[in-house]
Design goal:
The chain has 4 domains: about 90 residues, Arc Repressor Mutant, subunit A, CATH 1.10.10; about 130 residues, no CATH class; about 45 residues; about 55 residues. About 60% of the residues lie in helices and about 5% in strands. It has 17 helices and 3 strands. Strands 1-3-2 form a 3-stranded antiparallel beta sheet. Helix 6 crosses helix 7 and helix 13 crosses helix 14. The longest helix has 21 residues.
Length: about 350
């Protein structure tokens, strides 16, 4: 029921590609999908539900359709009048994340797992216990946490400092969020409660507990990224190499920042020009300070601006007919710039 309510709130009376919405929720970062998420104003929810099954998503849409709240065809979904009324009612009743910002949260599940494992290891170490089952995480995250622990465990007062940082961090969260996170942590002779158990204890829905927990960890990640000096131990659990960009896009972006041109990067990386342009489109959607002017000539901005003011849904073919020589990259980049500006002004 809850998931259905949240999904309804992501829809609009205008047609939206439902597959693009699903890909946004699970965090699939193709250029066309990111563009759809940006156009729908849903980019902030990127990867909020990484393990949502396609079948479950489809089943929830089916239920919305059966209730008469949405209409669908083979690609698109849109709200009916009854659906718009229902959406207005649910929008205010649901708990929404405040600190979650999709593009920056690409690695939130991994960070969450690392923090939980670190708390468990330090707690058991503090009580001089080496006989315990470590929390199940990916190999990569376990290696990162174990090497972090080995680096620091010899330092005097290590566990005290760790505890002090954790306490200070929890004081930044609102009481309810801090309680939720604390209750899910594992430690020496402490078994963290599952979200299901917490939901029962609080008389709440488990999806609400999940949303609040995600938001709390999003806030923690934001704090650690912003003030590393205050949390020297904890901020090392944030893998700084994990930016919002995919690995290949990041390499392109670093070369762009060093002043290289698209053609130079293409030759240097032995990658097609088209691929480099895809990387730039991804960066333009995910990075706040993207230098649009560097890739769009003033004449193109002016002409496309005039055309799109008259016809906001101007297709690439129509734009190219009016502006011979226009490249798809320039057309899409200009569209992205318009969307980014319009979201900033809301």
């Amino acid at each position: 029921m809850m998931l259905m309510a949240y999904l309804l709130c992501l829809l609009a009376p205008e047609k939206r590609r439902y597959q693009a919405i699903y890909y946004t929720l699970i965090g699939k970062r193709t250029t066309s999908n990111l563009y759809a998420a940006l156009a729908y104003g849903l980019l902030k929810w990127l990867q909020i539900y990484p393990n949502l099954e396609q079948a479950q998503f489809q089943a929830e849409l089916k239920r919305l359709q059966t209730n008469g709240w949405i209409a669908m065809d083979e690609r698109y979904v849109w709200l009916t009048v009854a659906g718009q009324q229902k959406q207005a009612q649910w929008q205010t009743a649901l708990v929404w994340p405040v600190h979650y910002e999709g593009p920056q949260m690409g690695h939130l599940p991994q960070f969450t797992a690392r923090l939980m494992l670190a708390v468990q290891i330090v707690s058991e170490y503090h009580h001089q216990n080496s006989q315990y089952y470590p929390l199940a995480t990916s190999m990569k995250d376990r290696v990162l946490v174990v090497s972090w622990f080995k680096r620091h465990k010899g330092t005097p007062n290590f566990s005290t400092q760790f505890q002090a940082e954790l306490t200070q961090l929890f004081e930044q969260l609102d009481l309810q969020q801090a309680d939720l996170v604390a209750n899910q942590l594992l430690g020496h002779q402490v078994l963290g409660k599952s979200q299901q158990q917490l939901a029962q204890a609080l008389g709440s829905q488990s999806l609400t507990v999940r949303v609040r927990t995600i938001d709390a960890y999003a806030q923690i990640l934001g704090i650690l990224l912003a003030s590393q000096a205050t949390y020297p131990l904890l901020s090392e659990l944030v893998n700084q190499a994990e930016t919002q960009l995919s690995q290949s896009t990041l390499q392109t972006w670093q070369l762009i920042q060093q002043g290289a041109s698209i053609e130079q990067i293409s030759q240097q990386r032995r990658v097609k020009v088209g691929t480099i342009k895809e990387h730039l489109l991804e960066a333009a959607m995910l990075l706040p300070q993207f230098p649009f002017d560097r890739f769009l000539a003033p004449t193109i901005i002016q002409k496309l601006g005039m055309l799109m003011t008259e016809q906001p849904t101007l297709s690439f073919n129509a734009a190219q007919a009016a502006l011979p020589g226009l490249d798809f990259f320039e057309y899409r980049l200009y569209q992205i710039q318009r969307l980014v500006i319009s979201h900033e002004h809301r």
